[in-house]
Amino acid sequence: MIGKLFGTDGIRGKAGECPLDDRSVFGIGAALAEFFRQSTSREPKFVTGRDTRESGPHIEGLLHAGMKARSANVISAGVITTPGVAFAARAFEQDAGVVISASHNPFEDNGIKIFLPNGHKAPPETEDFIEKAIGGSDLILPIDAHPVGIDERMSDEIHKGYLIFLASRFEGLDLSGKKLVIDCANGAASGFADQLFSGFGAEVVTIFDQPTGRNINAGCGSLHLGPLQSRVIQETAFCGIAFDGDADRALFVDENGEIVDGDSTLWVISRLLKGSSKLKNRTVVATVMSNIGLEIALNKEGITLVRTAVGDKYVLEELLRSNAEIGGEQSGHIIYPEVSIVGDGMLTALLMLNAAVENQASFSDLTSGFQRFPQTLVNVKVRAKLPFAENDRISIESAQVEEQLKGRGRLLLRYSGTENLARIMIEGPEENEIAMLADHLAKVIKEELG
Predict the structure, then answer these.
(1) CA dihedral sign, ordered 28, 33, 38, 40
(2) With contact defined as beta carbons under 8 Å apart, do 121 and 109 qualify?
């Protein structure tokens, strides 16, 4: 019996191990097809795509086998970015797009994400159906499951359509005379980045764009910015752009080799939108992990920062609820609903480059006005994860810290999701002050709960 499959970002695990073993993957494909067959009363249509992991073609072939066993029509976009699959589902009128990727994880991992044509991830009823089906109540898993051949005849057309879709949003953007160093993370961006950005006239230097199936995200990409920083300085480049394995996020390096993270990106794009009267409700959505400096800088611009729990799922929910125009995470996962509700690293890069051109600014100039505040994080072992609000002493001490930091810093007190740890995160203008406050609060929590 297979337990819960879906996390906050689809199915994720070690390739070849449950739930990404052959029988389970076949069953996931079959159950997905059966769900749509029952929902639409016709043969469902799917498009799949994958990043560059060596396990990708095998998993994709098993999904196709399961889907076809339930009378589905399925095509493959081949190696493509996650937002590229979401685009294909909409543009080619499919019932769903299925991505085989583990994003920024190492090559041994893989995953399955399902997108509807409107860009939303599969709703809970779809996930529940699949979990129940391969759990044995509705769908019998085969004793032996084997992949089938992948139909990639439309992959070139899908790739071309995706690049046209991105480029059409930035007609008139001229990057002539600008050298860009682009780290493709040996992932899905490897086949797209050069063509997209050189199409705007940029001089493009790509690095980590030779995927072997095992080198995706390995010492490169948005989690390992050191090589990109060095290369930007070496090339005297305008900026550097780093994608992760499936290119749904992007981080940047300015001409001085300094990192421009997701908070800085939100600062730049929100001001760009405000300047063109597209930030109608003066709201930016970010997570609880975004630096207090972003909130203070936005407030000075008359823009409100709304925080959510960590995860692009929660950012998107708040974007749609509040009708905000931009949101994202420090990791560089930015969502711009006017174009797509799926995070797209290449779209984010074009927005940033467009901001630089419109302001006739260097990349370092773009982030001026945003001061990142020092941050300290302290972990305290606890015997049990009791609600902090139920402990009078912790509540009082926490309130005193918040009052001391009011308007110039913040306290985030939470438990680890996987360990018996209380996490104290404090941000403020003075490093010594926040360290002292964090140590004091850690001592209190240790005495009360440790």
Answers:
(1) positive
(2) no
431-449 and 392-405 helices cross at what angle (nearest 10)? Answer: 170
Which one of 366, 393, 425 terminates a domain? 366
Q: Are 161 and 89 in contact (CB under 8 A)?
A: no
- DSSP bridge pairs for 414: 423
Query: Cβ contacts of residue 187 below 8 Å, gap of 6+?
Result: 51, 52, 211, 216, 217, 221, 243, 244, 245, 246, 247
Looking at residue 134, what is its pLDDT? 84
Q: Which domain holds residue 404?
A: 375-449
The reply to whether 182 and 242 lie within a common domain is yes
Residue 419, pLDDT score = 85
Task: Please name every residue paired with 328 in a beta bridge, in sequence order, or none if there are none.
Answer: 334
Q: How many CB atoms lie within 10 A of CB 198?
A: 14
| Residues 141 and 177 reside in one and the same domain | no
Say what the pLDDT of residue 139 is: 63
Residues 268 and 348 in one domain: yes
Residue 6 lies in a domain: no
- Look at residue 86 in the predicted model and tell me its pLDDT: 97
Buried b (16+ CB within 10 A) or exposed e, 226-245: ebbbebbeeeebbbbbbbbb
331-369 tens-digit pLDDT = 999 999 999 999 999 999 999 999 999 999 999 999 998
SS3 364: helix
Cβ–Cβ under 8 Å, residues 334 and 313? no
| CA pair distance 255, 313, nearest whole angstrom | 32
> What residue type is assigned to position 447 of the chain?
E
pLDDT value at position 1?
Answer: 44
Nearest alpha carbon to residue 59 among 111, 5, 95: 111
> Which residues are identified as catalytic?
103
> Alpha helix (H) ranges present in 179-224?
193-198
**Does residue 112 sit within a domain?**
yes
Contact 344, 162 (CB under 8 A): no
Q: Are residues 329 and 207 in the same domain?
A: yes
Task: Tell me whether the omega of the peptide bond preceding residue 123 falls within 30 degrees of 0, making it cis.
Answer: no
Range in 84-88, 168-172, 369-373 the model is least confident about: 369-373
Same domain, 308 and 435: no
Phi-psi region of 332 (alpha: psi -120 to 50; beta: other; left: phi over 0): left
Residue 140 has pLDDT above 80, yes or no: no
3 state DSSP class of 420? coil
Is the pLDDT assigned to residue 111 strictly greater than 60? Answer: yes
Shared domain for 245 and 290, answered yes or no, is yes
- Distance separating alpha carbons of residues 399 and 393, to the nearest angstrom: 10
Pair (404, 255) in one structural domain: no
Interval 298-320 mean pLDDT:
94
pLDDT > 60? residue 137: no
